[in-house]
Design goal:
Layout (H helix, E strand, L loop, with lengths): L7 H9 L7 E3 L12 H10 L3 E3 L1 E2 L6 H7 L3 E4 L5 H6 L5 H15 L4 E7 L5 H10 L3 E6 L4 H6 L12 H4 L5 E3 L4 E2 L1 H4 L5 E2 L5 E2 L13 H9 L2 E3 L9 E2 L6 H5 L2
Parallel strand pairs: 1-2, 3-4, 4-5, 5-6
Antiparallel strand pairs: 7-11, 8-12, 9-10
Helix pairs in contact: 3-5
């Protein structure tokens, strides 16, 4: 995804439009959230509007007191306790991250901290035992998505069998006809809304490639007609639309 910062005006418009009081607003993006020049202002604005700010940080730059004062809960990405493995998968300077985490535990207590781990096939037993022993609020272990748009961005972490042929990955076509109406729970239930850096609302946070998507309603219509945008290809949330025709309707030629 494009490496750029969401404009302040776009952000405040999104927060102001949230109808449900006390919603959780996750300050996330493609990269480290705290690098945004208005990150702390955004967290304060969320609280001022009656919502709860949340974020998942990589731990490389933690202002423990600020986080403890603004966030009820905070996520931190830790995929391994082995420095060599951490460097190999792009989690740099693990000793500094763990030191910062200690500061965070002192400032807000471990129960308010969620450890987020991406399962790339690395050994996890030591990390899981460490998380349990330290008493963190939760430990969320997620496999890397096997969707088409993730395979483009993270091919080095995916088994070869899951990486789609280059011709499909590089295709300029933004939607693929599957001749079967599809839907997903995120389209029809208000589970979450994810906004792109430009402010466009998406039904979930799992879409990396927004080519061919104009809005949630447009996406819903595309899937209903059997056209799957690149950003949804390979998603495990997709389900066939169950036929709901009456016997009379089925009898009409």
């Amino acid at each position: 995804m494009a490496q750029q910062d969401m404009a302040w005006e776009t952000f405040t418009a999104i927060v102001d439009a949230i109808a449900q009081p006390g919603s959780t607003v996750s300050l996330q993006g493609e990269g480290e959230p705290t690098l945004h020049p208005h990150f702390w202002d955004m967290a304060r604005y969320v609280r001022q509007r009656g919502h709860q700010p949340y974020s998942i940080v990589n731990g490389s730059r933690i202002d423990a007191r600020r986080i403890a004062g603004l966030f009820t809960q905070i996520g931190i990405s830790i995929d391994t306790l082995d420095p060599a493995t951490a460097e190999q998968i792009g989690r740099h300077n693990l000793p500094k991250v763990l030191t910062n985490l200690e500061d965070l535990c002192t400032a807000m207590g471990p129960k308010r901290i969620v450890v987020m781990t991406v399962d790339l096939g690395q050994p996890l037993a030591e990390l899981k035992a460490w998380v349990a022993q330290r008493g963190f609020g939760r430990h969320v272990v997620q496999p890397l998505m096997r969707k088409t748009d993730y395979a483009v961005g993270y091919p080095q972490h995916l088994p070869q069998s899951t990486v789609l042929p280059p011709v499909r990955l590089q295709s300029p076509v933004s939607a693929r006809a599957v001749n079967q109406p599809l839907t997903c729970q995120f389209l029809h239930q208000n589970i979450m809304r994810y906004h792109t850096v430009q402010g466009m609302a998406l039904p979930c946070c799992f879409i990396k490639n927004t080519s061919g998507i104009e809005s949630i309603e447009h996406l819903r219509n595309q899937l209903a007609h059997g056209n799957t945008p690149i950003g949804c290809l390979g998603c495990s949330e997709l389900r066939p639309v169950a036929a709901q025709t009456t016997p009379l309707e089925r009898a009409v030629p």
